[in-house]
Write a structure and sequence with these properties.
The complex is a heterodimer. Chain A has helices at 22-46, 48-79, 86-102, 109-113, 119-150, 158-176, 222-244, 246-256, 258-263, 268-293, 303-316, 321-342, 347-361, and strands at residues 16-17, 187-188, 197-200, 204-206, 218-221, 296-297. By secondary structure, chain A is mainly alpha-helical. Chain A has a domain at 59-301. In chain A, the strands form two sheets. In chain A, strands 4-3-5 form a three-stranded antiparallel β-sheet. By secondary structure, chain B is an all-alpha fold. Chain B has a single domain (2-116, 184-445), classed as ABC transporter involved in vitamin B12 uptake, BtuC (Orthogonal Bundle). Chain B is 72% helix and 1% strand. Chain B starts with a helix and ends with a helix. The chains are: A mainly alpha, B mainly alpha. The interface between A and B is large, with 64 and 61 residues. Strand 1 of chain A pairs parallel with strand 3 (145-146) of chain B, so a sheet runs across the interface.
Chain lengths: 375, 446
């Protein structure tokens, strides 16, 4: 049979159309999906509360990824650059809040300035200050990075900018690992507020300190609520920024066609800086929330969440804001469910497998063309 | 001591670069005798420097010996990456993963052989050969159809390779009991336990490691190379991360208790001599150079320059992308095999994807699409950063390793800003030059 096969050049016309064999690949994917579904459904039926618990933890992770993915997708949409340093900006956000809380007690400033303030207000205002500080530091850092490292290379080949981005990322990681900066150790993170946990079983009850929630209940904490609210808020703010403001219009124009928008009187460099700043601010917020949720920080904390957020942005269709959001939620679910039911070490593998599969089936990502929303 | 050490290190770096220049000059000479003599002398020089002692001092001490071997393996890996990235324009970060795959495969084969278990060699060897045959057969089959979706092709290849692996495991387990008596006992070693056989097994192990890495890269590259350049970069980075995750879990997820997961694999026979390292290095350099200056090489480069134009010229872009990727991974796998048997200890930390940026940085420093640049940068990098800078900085305090990693991104940034084509640009030395000039001179002489 092998001898009879035609040579590749001589008989192109004699070759049979292979498009009819698409079912092999689709069948493979369906089989894969069926196996995954089988695992999920059997586990759901075995212990529904546990399954919902895993989904909730996946949501928590996904909303944090969403904060980072928004920055990735915005920057990529405008300058077509995988900003590897974005994950490290995220890390810096976590560290800034750590120092603000642990060294300088910044979260307690309202109590020191206004002694009569109720405790609840102190916590809320103090925590918000910490988050704002992280956001501002990250913003200024991202703008500096953009000005120093990326701007001179804007007309160079894209690969040069990509390598520069990797270089900046390395620099932040290892400069941070010096002892007089952040130190290379894992550092336990002190939260600016207390964790309060509730459980759901015949209504919502507070979990008392030192008590375990009853078996078969679903627990969630105020951290989960804060992350969800913050993430949705950011999504709304960003939508407003991109859709309703002048700078948002400029961003959309720049991502669509840089030379033309320059001709139309748009300060392209300024718009790019603003984009970096906005993305970095969200990453800084994400860093604080991530550290609050998973309270152990070190200088390479940002690499994997950063990569997964980028994968999420690609998954949703790069350049699309709703896409990044949905992609991040999918990524969080995939990771949590993998950790829960397949194998904990393979959590990173799943993210990249999903990326490859999605790009093969739909190269533009889930929301790539349909939304058409460039930021 | 420090000034003396500094001068000595700089002399060593200059000497090694001069050595490389001389080697390539001799290899590129038209006279065959000069060619062979040059290679033999180049081999003998380092061999002597590694063995001959003047009283207490040795020209290349044990520390330098380590650097030489590291530089050789790094050259193999970086050359492979240069083929993929520099010549073919595919931004790959998976090279370090293939390097790790090669290292673990080769190490497992010789390790098992040393504990009187031929299954490593049998299964891996038969699996690689069968897998290769299966891939060839399926590719003939696939070629009968035009426009077959990549996913379907991938499924067919995957099924055939899994089948080949299963058959290899079955055959290996069946043959092994027959071979075990030939190893003899520790007191009375049999024929298979002799050092000469071990050398042959080492050679086979390195080749199998390269072939295995190449087959994995084929399976991985087939679907992933159809993605765009940035997406390809991220997917390959993901591959490197997944490979490292699997290495940490070799004893739990994968069925290889002898690799000991995150604790690191010990007891690998240290079989890499300067002879083997030099042999593999020269073979890879020659193969690479001949490939680049062949019509295949021109096709590979045309894909980098402009995919659409290349397609219009009748070049099978997908094939040449895959080809460059597979050959590059083959080099990395061989480099991994050599490395594993030089160092004798493998730990997943060595194959961390952060370390995996090193070959990329070497390729960029040396100049994309410059073989000389890559080779010189590999040797210079290892001798400068691993040798000189590590020792110098370790005098300053405990933060030395971190400072190295702080300094080299800065160097990378400066390079990108000031000289984006790399330090050596398009310069090629002697043998690595495009052979047209030599041929023209020959033709004019006649």
């Amino acid at each position: 049979m092998l001898q009879a096969s035609p040579s590749p050049t001589s008989s192109l016309a004699a070759r049979r159309p292979g498009a009819r064999l698409a079912w092999i690949g689709q069948g493979f994917l369906l089989l894969l999906a069926a196996v995954v579904l089988y695992i999920l459904i059997t586990n759901f039926l075995k212990d529904p509360p546990l399954f919902i618990q895993v989904v909730l933890s996946g949501l928590q992770l996904g909303f944090v990824y969403a904060l980072v993915a928004l920055g990735y997708t915005m920057v990529y949409g405008i300058v077509r650059l995988i900003n590897f340093a974005h994950g490290d900006v995220f890390m810096v956000g976590a560290f800034v809040s750590f120092y603000a809380v642990t060294r300088f007690q910044l979260h307690a400033w309202p109590a020191a300035v206004f002694p009569g303030l109720p405790a609840g207000w102190v916590v809320v205002i103090g925590s918000l200050t910490v988050v704002l500080l992280s956001m501002i530091v990250c913003m200024s850092m991202a703008v500096t990075i953009e000005r120093v490292a990326y701007k001179p290379l804007r007309d160079a080949p894209r690969i040069a900018a990509l390598i520069t981005a990797i270089g900046v990322s390395f620099f932040l990681e290892f400069f941070g690992a010096l002892y007089f900066v952040f130190s290379p150790r894992f550092i336990p993170y002190q939260r600016p507020f207390e964790v309060v946990t509730w459980y759901i079983k015949d209504g919502i009850h507070l979990v008392q300190v030192g008590q375990a929630p009853p078996p078969g209940s679903i627990t969630f904490s105020n951290i989960f609520l804060i992350i969800v609210v913050a993430s949705v808020l950011v999504r709304v703010v960003l939508q407003f920024l991109v859709r309703r403001t002048k700078i948002g219009k400029a961003m959309r124009a720049t991502s669509f066609d840089k030379p033309t928008s320059r001709l139309m009187g748009i300060n392209v460099d300024g718009v790019i800086s603003v984009t970096f700043a906005v993305g970095a601010a969200f990453a800084g917020m994400g860093g604080v929330l991530y550290a609050i949720a998973y309270p152990s920080i070190w200088t390479q904390l940002g690499i994997l969440p950063g990569l997964k957020a980028f994968v999420a942005a690609v998954l949703g269709g790069i350049g699309s804001i709703p896409g990044a959001f949905v992609g991040a939620l999918i990524m969080g679910q995939a990771e949590a469910l993998t950790m829960g039911y397949i194998s904990t070490p393979m959590r990173d593998a799943v993210a990249f497998t999903i990326l490859i599969v999605v790009l093969l089936v739909k190269p533009t990502g889930l929301f790539g063309e349909a939304a058409g929303e460039k930021a | 001591m420090e000034l003396g050490f500094l001068i000595l290190s700089i002399v060593k770096i200059v000497a090694i670069l001069a050595y490389l220049y001389g080697l390539f000059w001799a290899m590129g000479h038209q006279n065959k005798i000069v060619k062979v003599a040059g290679i033999v002398i180049a081999f003998a020089l380092i061999q002597l420097a590694l063995t001959v002692k003047f009283g207490e001092t040795q020209i290349l001490n044990d520390f330098d010996r380590g650097l030489v071997f590291q530089a050789c393996t790094m050259t193999m890996v970086a050359l492979g990456l240069n083929l993929i990235y520099g010549f073919n324009g595919q931004f790959s970060l998976a090279q370090w993963g293939f390097y790790g795959i090669g290292a673990y495969t080769a190490a497992d084969i010789t390790y098992r052989w040393n504990v009187r278990d031929a299954r490593g060699l049998l299964v891996a060897g038969i699996g690689v050969i069968l897998g290769g045959l299966m891939i060839l057969a399926v590719s003939r089959l696939v070629r009968r159809y035009k426009g077959m979706p990549v996913l379907s092709q991938f499924t067919l290849y995957l099924i055939s390779c899994v089948l080949a692996g299963a058959i290899a495991v079955y055959i290996g387990n069946a043959i092994n009991p027959a071979l075990v008596p030939l190893f003899g006992t520790p007191d009375a070693p049999g024929i298979l336990a002799s050092p000469a056989v071990l050398q042959v097994v080492f050679l086979l192990a390195v080749l199998i490691a390269g072939a295995f890495a190449a087959e994995v890269s084929f399976l991985f590259g087939l679907p992933v190379l159809t993605l765009g350049s940035d997406y390809f970069g991220i997917a390959t980075l993901g591959f490197a991360i997944v490979v490292q995750t699997l290495m940490v879990n070799t004893d739990t997820i994968l069925p290889f208790p002898e690799m000991k997961g995150g604790r690191g694999m010990i007891g690998i026979p240290k079989l890499t001599t300067w002879f083997w390292a030099f042999l593999f290095l020269i073979i890879i350099i020659v193969v690479m150079r001949n490939l680049i200056y062949s019509s295949t090489g021109r096709a590979i480069m045309s894909v980098r320059e402009d995919e659409t134009a290349a397609k219009a010229m009748g070049i099978d872009v997908a094939f040449y992308k895959l080809f460059a990727f597979v050959v590059g991974s083959l080099f990395a796998g061989i480099g991994g095999g050599v490395y594993a048997h030089y160092i004798g200890f493998l730990s997943p930390g060595t194959f961390d994807f952060l370390v995996g940026f090193n070959p990329l940085i070497i390729v960029v420093f040396g100049g994309l699409g410059s073989m000389t640049g890559t080779i010189a940068a590999s040797f210079g990098w290892i001798f400068f950063l691993e040798g000189l800078l590590r020792v110098l900085l370790s005098q300053l305090g405990t933060e030395a390793p971190t400072w190295r990693y702080v300094l080299y991104p800065i160097a990378l940034l400066l390079l990108m800003l000031l000289r984006p084509q790399g330090l050596l640009g398009n310069v090629e030395w002697g043998f690595l030059k495009r052979p047209v000039a030599a041929l023209q001179a020959k033709a004019a002489g006649r």
